[in-house]
Amino acid sequence: MLSSTLLLSGLQSCMPDKTQPNGTLKYFDVSGYFKADTARLKKLNPQVDKTVIHNDVTERKAVYIPNWGQELNLFIQSDINRPAWKNSYTVLNTDSLIIYTAKTPDLRTVKIMIRKEKNKVKWILIFNHTKNLLYETREKLSYFPDSVYQIEKSQHVKLMGKNLYKIKGILKH
């Protein structure tokens, strides 16, 4: 199970400063939100009913997550607050829902949907897509604070075929 998690986590890239010239963020701070929540979860240390599916092989265990930053790394890496991307997303903002949609297909993070209630995040959905000559990857990341997180990933690598991954963690209270 750990190897699947490491595989899905990917490598942390060097990230440029993501603030605008006036020091504010243009979009919701996905990275900051998940870094704060990983610190909170580390402190709470909840038991997690974790299911990992790779293709059709399923493994399920009750575990304690030793490194929430690593566990939720794909969420953290889906931050869209880079100066180069300041005009790369359309924004739909209502009282309870924020939707960011990429204007061009070359951006890794295609869409982020955030449901809020009284300024508190109720859920976050993130859709990522990467395609080049060697592979194509699609990710759907779902996060419901204090409840469940889910990572669904399909990856097609030329000459190696397709892999499907699904990680679901249900937090026990």
Characterise the protein shown here:
It is a single chain. The protein has about 170 residues and is α+β, with helices and mostly antiparallel strands. The chain has four helices and nine strands. It has helices at about 1-10, 30-45, 70, 75, and strands at about 45-55, 55-65, 90-95, 95-100, 110-115, 120-130, 135-145, 150-155, 160-170. It has a nine-stranded antiparallel β-sheet, covered by helices on one side. The model is unreliable at about 1-20 (pLDDT under 50).
Keywords:
single chain, 173 residues, alpha+beta, 4 helices, disordered N terminus
Strand order of the largest sheet: 2-1-9-8-7-6-5-4-3
Strand pairing plus helix content: what structural class? Answer: alpha+beta
Tell me, rounded to a whole number, the average pLDDT.
Answer: 88
State the separation between the terminal residues, measured CA to CA: 22 Å
Per DSSP E runs of 2 or more residues, the count of β-strands stands at: 9
So what's the overall shape? flat
CA gyration radius, whole angstroms: 16 Å
SSE order, one letter for each helix or strand: HHEEHHEEEEEEE
Reported for the largest beta sheet, the result is:
9 strands, antiparallel
Please report the number of helical segments: 4
Please indicate the percent range of residues in DSSP E strands (runs of 2 or more).
over 45%
Low-pLDDT stretches = 1-20
Helix content: 10-25%
